Amino acid sequence: MAWIKRKWTAEEADKWTKEDVLAFIISPLVYFLLALGGVLSLLFFWYGWVILGAAVVLLIILLWIIDPKLKALSKDYEKKQKQYLEDVEKISRWEE
Amino acid sequence: MVTFSFLDWFWFVAFVVLMVFCGVLFFRLGRRSMADFFLAGRGLPWWLPASSVYATHSATDTPIWISGVIYQYGLRGIWYTFFSAWCAISAFASTRIFRRSLAYTQAEWQTLRFSGLGAELLRGWIAGWQVFMNMFVLGWVGIAMGKVCHFLFGWPDWVGLILFSSLCAIYVLTAGFWGVIMADFQQGVIAFAVIVIVSLWGIAAAGGPGGIAHKLESLGEGWRLNPLAFSGFTSGEFPLVWFLTMLVIAVIGGFGMGTAIDWYPEAQRIQSAKTVRDASYSIWAGSALIVIRNSLWAVAILAFFSLYPRIQSPGEYEMAWYRLGFEFLPVGLVGFFFAAIVAIHLSTISTHLNLGASYATRDLYNHYFRPKAGDKELVWVGRISTLILLLGSFVYGLMMQEITQWLIFALWIMAAGIWLPSILQVVWWRFNSWGYLSSWIANLGLSWLIVWILPEFEIIPVLPDYLQFWIMMILGGLIYIPITFLTPAEDMDRLVKYYVMSRPYGWWKPVRVEAERRGLLGNESPLKGEI
User: Fold this and answer.
1) Fewer CB atoms inside 10 Å of the end CB: C or N, chain B?
2) Which letter, b or e, does each residue of B43-77 get, where b requires 16 or more Cβ atoms within 10 Å of its Cβ?
3) Under-70 pLDDT residues of chain B
């Protein structure tokens, strides 16, 4: 699936891309299916298990899409964090 | 009333000692600095804040209110509990932006995103509101524990309220957020195990899934088995339009910060995670567990309905899940169940004690009164604030009676007027502090006016929930949108700094272009020399 980018440089990962949009779509769908599949499978309706299974498959796809990007941007950001923390202390001080 | 055997008391005492000790154990870490007392040093792996998200939002009042909505509406009532779905998008959207801002609290974030007097007023406003709100939450969760103890032992409500919140304060006062997070992990495991056991036990007691379905069909209540059984498009007690409104509020709300009242405790967990990735997964996984837990509870309450189908009093059917545990679990396990209820309770109380104290300490005391205070002083102020919150919560708790209505209002309606502005402040560069501040003030007046005061004086009818939400959102917009355009945009220097650190999405082109012009979007530490 070359359409989904899985190797990221720090600069690329900083931008909002279609991988993020896919995460925005898939993630609430997983929650919705977990809620629906959860109650229906506990009541032993066969379609409840199917819905629950779909939630798990979508979750795996979600992680496959978004995890490489999250890793790349986290790694880069942690390098800058110490400097940022000092900056934040200065920025957020009370302004007279 | 329930009678405890020796084994029940043993479980109860052993777990309470373990929970309190587990928190106190981290005393040394909590006192190191303000970052330790309120954010556990910003170094937690994702599963610790995730367990804390889950544990915090499993409170003693949660099964009461879920029992209320499921007993009343059947399985479709589960969508009332779906507000936690804001985390589905937030985990990959606003969580990332907030974690990168490094703000201690949402109030502090306001002074990073906005500038000048408006930003300071917003910070003070949100900090003050959060101190009040956390006290309020502590009150309603505390009184729920009072009700459980009244149901169990016949104690007056105030005994359960004061006794268990005070027990919790021991480790929050000593170890701060380290105590909260470590106790939450252990309490979350106990709570989840017991929720599974009691719910499955209750389902089995009602004859299993087949027995529940059969009983409901024979009562002519088969519709209760369908989570999508709406009463009409706009008509009836649970219309489709309300379901869609809730989906919009919950899901789209994830693009903003502060669209749900749960954002504020989550914001603390987001900043306690060691990386942006850990922050995202902690919010996602903690809330996914909540969604699964709600399903378990919902089916258990349906089992209760099939056993006791004609209860009219909300005060009585709101205790459904607790009754399943205390009426059907065998001797010995009842004490274990009560210990788990205490775990559920402490995990929520501890979070709100520490969270409220963080706003009082970081955003009020440190920011406005003693900007040069050292870590030792701030940790002590944190402890004193915790104590004040505890005492205030006792007063609020004794003022509250019915829980379900409070929570429907608090979780879905109260934030209606600030729902869209809370998104706009993240996605739109031109939205300024005056616009956001005015939306808060307008919402405060509008929510009370539309939900309580005008219907009380019969000036307008009592509106359905979905109409309340959309009307408040539109009326609020008529106030804050003109104010935004009539007041100047935020200072470009501040916007550029914020943009470079947080990389927000949405309509930020003028700011991005300016940041590029200044050469700040490269790989070097972008703010160096720019403060």
Assistant:
1) N
2) ebebebbbbbbbbbbbbbbbbbbbbbbbbbbbbbb
3) 401-414, 522-531
